[in-house]
Amino acid sequence: DFLWEKLDEAPFDVEEFGDLFCKAPVKKKVSTEKQVPRKKTKEVAKILDGKRSQAVGIFISSAHITSSDIESALLDFDPSILSVEVLQTLYEQRASPAELSDLEAHLKAKPDTTLDRPEQ
To answer: For the FH2 domain, which residue ranges apply (predicted)?
Structure first.
């Protein structure tokens, strides 16, 4: 004697159940306008070794410095722009002679190419 054997089955409307809980089909929007092609983003040249480029990029971002700050600090010998420690860290992460020659060759071949931030 089980309880389930004694109970009458409740009426169940499958159509109503489906209407209540089924996901409505997604209607695609018909676009009357022509799609405007997206402008391509400018590609940046990455010449440095990947790890070095990433390390320099992270350091520049975390120190909140720009290439013009570095240039001014070096050309004016002004430690108030960048500290000696920052300059020392940049010096330690400098490009190798091979990377510098690759960078110069790339700039001669494509002078209008935008360089990635660490390469600047």
So the answer is: 1-120
SS3 at position 61:
helix
Mean pLDDT of 34-45: 72
- The whole-number average pLDDT for the span 83-102 is 88
**What is the end-to-end Cα distance of the chain in Å, rounded?**
85
- Please report where in the chains the tokens 């920052």 appear, as a residue: 86
For residue 48, the one-letter residue type is L
Report how far residue 36's alpha carbon sits from residue 38's, in angstroms, rounded to the nearest whole number.
6
For residue 99, being part of any structural domain is answered with yes
Alpha carbons within 13 A on the beta-carbon side of 111: 1
pLDDT digits (tens, 9 = 90+) for 54-90: 888 898 899 888 888 888 888 888 888 888 888 898 8
State residue 35's pLDDT score.
66
Q: Looking at the 3D structure of the chain, how many domains does it have? A: 1
With tokens 């940046």, the residue in question is: 44
Q: Distance (Å, rounded) from C-alpha 103 to C-alpha 109?
A: 10
Give me the domain span that covers residue 70.
44-119
